[in-house]
Specification:
Low-confidence stretches: 176-181, 204-209
Shape: globular
Order of helices and strands: HHHHHHHHHH
Structural class: mainly alpha
Largest sheet: none
Number of helices: 10
Mean pLDDT: 85
Radius of gyration: 17 Å
């Protein structure tokens, strides 16, 4: 539905309306994250709408451009949405990447990222100056989780399944239902998958991931 709406949009306003509609119908993002771009929001639309169009174009295009597109959108968001921070823009961009490129894009809540990175890697998530580098590390981590799931007999269809699994585990990790998944997030498993993903990016080794 979102892809069709974006492809049929004839103006920046229609693109913005399509994205806002998709965000408001989803429970992935808290409404406060995208409120500045809502009809009653206070964002500078003359500057934000073109940036949103470029972001949508990137989400529909080559995934290799996602990180830089996210970084550019975050910078514009901070400049055009009063008193806003980069993270809401990161979430909006990742929402588009996840839904328009579900095999290659990813989305993760800040709290989920912080908790699981610490649990799986043993250190805090890196505090990057660049939102592009933040996204690259998020994608690296989520690809590693996907690989770990697959190696342990699960079959996530795409990154939407991976995101959903982590969200469930994060919300209910103290309940019995999470016991089947939590062991897959053990440090050795994730670190090995992240190392394999790094080698794939650098040399093409482990192309099956």
């Amino acid at each position: 539905e979102l892809r069709v709406a974006l492809e049929e949009a004839a103006s920046d306003q229609e693109i913005a309306d399509a994205i806002h509609s998709a965000l408001s119908k989803s429970n992935l993002l808290p409404w406060r994250a995208y409120w500045p771009m809502s009809p009653k929001g206070d964002a500078d639309r003359e500057r934000l709408w073109p940036a949103l169009r470029l972001l949508a174009d990137a989400a529909l295009g080559d995934p290799s451009g996602h990180a830089e597109a996210l970084d550019a959108f975050c910078k514009t968001w901070v400049e055009t949405a009063p008193q806003s921070k980069p993270d809401p823009a990161r979430q909006i961009a990742e929402f588009l990447f996840l839904h328009l490129a579900p095999s290659d894009g990813t989305y993760i809540r800040h709290s989920v990222r912080q908790d699981f990175w610490l649990e799986a890697v043993g250190s805090r998530f890196p505090d990057h100056a660049s939102m592009a580098e933040t996204y690259r590390d998020e994608l690296r981590f989520m690809q590693a989780v996907r690989s770990a799931f697959e190696e342990n007999g699960l079959a996530p269809r795409d990154m939407i399944d991976v995101q959903s699994a982590l969200w469930v585990v994060h919300n209910y990790k103290d309940e019995e239902d999470s016991d089947a998944i939590s062991p897959l997030l053990e440090r050795e498993t994730i670190e090995a998958a992240m190392d394999a993903y790094d080698r794939f990016r650098q040399t093409g080794e482990h192309g099956e991931i």
